[in-house]
Each structure stands twice: as structure tokens, then as C-alpha cells.
Amino acid sequence: MMKTFSFACFMLISIFGFTQNQNEIKSSNVKTTYEEYNFLTERYGYDDKAEMLEGYELQDFFELTLEKFNFNYKLFVEVNTGKTKAILITITKIKKKDDKVRFLCMPINNGTLFEKFNSEAEGLGVSMTLAFEALNKALLSKLIDEKINVTTKSNNE
User: How would you list the strands of the sheet with 100-107, edge to edge?
Assistant: First the structure.
């Protein structure tokens, strides 16, 4: 199960690099730093008084509710470059009395932090992990369709 999850996460990040040649996946020089990762996983969301890290903003990317889970993906963007440095994933398990909220940071082009991300994702719990894996497969399919079919079609018109 986790191999599929890891593959889906890898593909989610890699899909941003698709070019018109679908056999080629490019990578940028953008890389998530430890400071950025730690801010999103340790301060943001957990500290109500925490201000956004200077020079960054969060932009809405994708939100979906599946059964008793709400998933919210936000792009963590460096304002002066306009580059997405990471993806903040907020997972909420909707409960009657008290919602359970988890924050994950999907890093870009940083293998060490990606291993940490995978480890943290594995610790979500069984039901949350299964729902997260199902969502990532759906999101991956949507991104592939958008990048390959929609982009290619509009470029060929």
C-alpha cells in the first residue's frame, strides 16, 4: 500500500515537469528547504498566532471531501520568484465531537525531506492513509489529463 502511495506522491510532484514530449519529465532547480518544511509541519496551523513565513504565501490548489475526510492542497509560493516551494496538505477527519486535523508538507526536489514526508504520511492511521491514497490517485489522474490532454489539445489548436 505504501509503495503505491509513494509512487502517487512522486508522480504528483513530477507531473508539474511534463512537457509536450510525454516521454520526458523535466525537473527545476526549485528545492524545498528545511526551514520551509519545518514551518509548514511544525508551526503553520498548530500555532494560531503564527504569521506566514516572510516572503511566502499560500495559494489554493485543490480541495475535495471524500466520505468523512476533507483534503485541502495549497501551494507554498515564494513571492519574489513566484516559484512553488512545497505543497501544504491539510487532512481533516470529520468527527461528531472533535475533528482530527493533520498537516503534511510535500517537498519539491529534496529527497531527504521527501523521505520524511513519506514517514509522516505513513503515521496518519489506517483510515486516513487509505483515503489519502485514494485522493492522490484521483488527483494524479486529473493532473495527467490536464497536462497531457488539455494542454496538448490547446497547443495543437
Answer: 56-66, 69-78, 83-93, 100-107
